[in-house]
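Sample intake sheet
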Amino acid sequence: LSKPSPRHYYGNSLGGIMGSVFMSLSTDTTHGVLGVPGGPFGILLPRSKDFAALFDIIRLRYDSSLARISMMSAIQEQFTYLEPGGYVNHLWKDPLPHTPQHSVLIHYGQGDAQVNWVAAEWLGRSIGGMRAYDGTMRVRNCTLFGFEFVDNSAKLSGTDGGLMQGYYFDVPADNIPLENIPCASATDTHGKTRRTAHAMEQTRVFFEQDVIYNPCGGACHEQP
């Protein structure tokens, strides 16, 4: 991170969301870590506590859920020009002309009330070439799909793709709704994933050695 060459990207929250756009476009940065990211905004906004107040205003103006869904779909068409939905297919599987393939780690956390895990999983599936360890976190035992699953002891190279890595924080299941609403604010873990020793060490090894490994040896259970 401190060296002028090679260059790496590290971003969290909006830095993770828009970092996927940067990594899709960059011609000289091939390795990046996207902390608690997601996309597209059409999925992100209704599931984020940061959008809740604005969404209340929208509900007052549009009392029909069908009208609100239609409006969000129309707005998404404009978002696509600048957000992950318009770019991530070029990050790995279909690079833009004169642009290399890019490898990223995606770190996401159980109980994130600002950038939902559903959006992080969408991002990983859309990128292509992403792997996940057998012990990767499954929120409320939901089925993970769309990734190549590898043994917890496997060491991988960024030149072969990227990785999804989830983190548990022992958030009660009732605080993690499966509906299209935010997780509970009281147990929001949005800022915690990046501060875990496991996430920091995995990032360091990825950047310095081009090695992807499971820092937890299985599921990553962290202190709440």
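Comment: Helices lie at 14-17, 19-25, 41-44, 52-61, 65-79, 117-127, 197-209. The two ends are 28 Å apart (CA to CA).
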